[in-house]
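User: Modeling request: complex.
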Amino acid sequence: MKRLLIILLMSVGITLCATAQEGLRINEVFGGHVVSKQFIQESLVKGDNLAPYNLKVLHTAKCVANNKERTTIEQLFEEDMKERISDDNSNMEMESRDGHLYYAIVQLKNGARGTHRYICYQCRDRSSHYDITLVYMEGKASLADLRRTFKKK
Amino acid sequence: MMNKETNIRELLRRYMEGESTQAELRLLKEYFDSEQDLPEDLRAFAQMFAIIDEEMPTPSAEALDRFSSPLKENRRSFRLWPLLAAACIAAFAFIILMPPEEENMAIAYVDGKMLNNEVQAMQMGQEALQEIFSNGNQEQQLSELFNEP
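Assistant: Request completed. Predicted assembly structure:
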């Protein structure tokens, strides 16, 4: 009976992990809890469309934020960064200025099915507001692959 | 005498309850066959034991088989339970652990409205990634910075 319970609990755990974006703090931003949905441009793509990039999930959000909202988003992102795979340059890029995060690409610990998971953050100071871009990605592509594919020449 | 009668009464009670062994049955039969001076309430038993064969019929091997076969079946079905439980767990694990069919989805949210537009969703996603991986296109940022009034 005890073994059966352990097997059941493990199965439930795996099922929950399979929906890998769940549990991330930045979901509050995607969900419109930090910045109103009216000020967010969001895209969620899953499946075949992402096959050329070797990705399975791509979730992006671009939002216009005030100073307070920017700080909250930054804090949420930094919380999620704790789940990073390592501090190695091959798994992470980061740029901070004046105590604020301006840019980060972070590889998180792998998802349940061995897929790579990434979160990205970019903040552009527009003097009256901030343009913030948040990205969650999941798939087999490595960070090097993604850099090659998406870096503008 | 009294003690023997008491014993016989006890054996009779056991016989009537169906608890007698072959040896006890034999004792009862010997007693009722040999005892001449029986108490009145035991005389009816003497007649009964007179018509009971001393040797109880031994069941044939075939009869024993027939008798025990339902028990064997019961035992077999009981042993099936662990197998059935294992099969259920295996089926459950198979359903849970099998990678689900990849779901295709492309949704864009603009100005708080959901657009089920695959092209737009892809375009927005690609633009966001290009912006991130070009670090906000630093050249553009620098030109914006220096061109500010």
